[in-house]
Amino acid sequence: MPQLTRIYLDHAATTAVDPRVLKAMLPYWTEHYGNPASLYDQGRGAAEGLNRARKQVAGILGCNDNEIVFTSCGTESDNLAIRGVTTALRRKGKHIITTTIEHHAILRTCEQLEQLDGYKVTYLPVDAMGMVDPDDVRKAIRPDTVLISVMYANNEIGTIQPIAEIGAIARKAGVVFHTDAVQAGGSLPLDVDQLNVDLLSLSGHKFYAPKGVGVLYIRRGTPIVPIQTGGGQERGMRAGTSNVPYIVGLGEALVLAHQDREQEQARLAALRDRLIKGVLTSVPDSCLNGHPTQRLANNANFIFAGIEGEAVQMKLDWAGIACGTGSACASEDDEPSHVLVACGIKKLLSRASIRFTLGRENTEIDVDRVIEILPPIVQGIRDLSPIYRIGMLS
Ligand SMILES: *Cc1c(COP(=O)(O)O)cnc(C)c1O
Known about the structure:
Layout lengths: L6 E2 L10 H7 L1 H4 L10 H21 L6 E4 L2 H15 L6 E5 L4 H14 L2 E5 L9 H7 L4 E5 L13 H11 L2 E5 L11 H4 L3 E5 L10 E5 L25 H16 L1 H22 L3 E4 L9 E6 L4 H10 L2 E2 L1 E2 L12 H5 L4 H4 L2 E5 L6 H20 L2 H4 L5
Parallel strand pairs: 1-11, 3-4, 3-5, 5-6, 6-7
Antiparallel strand pairs: 2-8, 7-8, 9-10, 10-13, 12-13
This protein binds pyridoxal-5'-phosphate.
């Protein structure tokens, strides 16, 4: 059999490091290897890289350099936002508002605060397309509410939330507002004033920087205390010697993603729509999850009734195509996707989801290959599925 070129369609899980990003990073291991806090040459070189990255990120977010905190990942940024703000405001109250469709970095953190520290958390519902109603946010605010956290775009179904509107509600009520923008980092506008956010999380590996580096934007004056204490790095907000090469890579990658953002997102949206149309017309009993228009340009998430998402994923892998399943992040407990369940999809059906997320290197050829190869794979699995054959789900 001829060797197939592999097609990667799981950019919501992670992305490859862009060669231009890698090139920018390399001198920071070998030449500018000093501690950025040291005053001699090697340290100055590292400090310059760190400062440049901070300026690059602040430029894209439209904020001051000193409002940017570099972290080790998106998960850490989310933890710092939630734990840092709630700890600072523990005497004001112990109520948090978030949503049922957040990433586990938010949900598990909130759950722990409930279990160990007596916090009350309101998990807002979403509609069938995964959309939060800003009015629900308004109604959930109480005198003891200390933090609202709503994600910018969902990692499974791609639904984009009305962040600016929710932010305006939070500000009027005087409640701190955080958004997990990890999935939106390279694809949506990030101006923190237009978004009305006080805190915003990013992760490098979702926009062609390496895994293991993140950002938390913290608006000046936001009540927050560090959760990792030690040396005074990141103005005391995140102790630990900075991962200079990775931070340099993140800054470079964010600039690259935003310099041709609109053009690239339009290209991806056209590919996504081609994929959605092709799949829905060629696979019977299939449907699209998430919002038809308010969705990330690179996200197409489907349900194929009567099958397990993992089975399709495995067969696509054999055919050289990498994609995600709805339950990817929860695979350790084998639970159906909490996001699809929140959208009102029955548990059995929610296990039948497949997520394709496009990226910079994908072309029409890749999309057409999926449309060609997917229908017989789904049919083959269904032929072996008694549930599907007796028509329980169709
Ligand atoms: C990937 C992701 C995270 C976690 O980021 P890491 O850098 O992998 O820790 C958090 N939230 C969302 C929405 C994500 O997609």
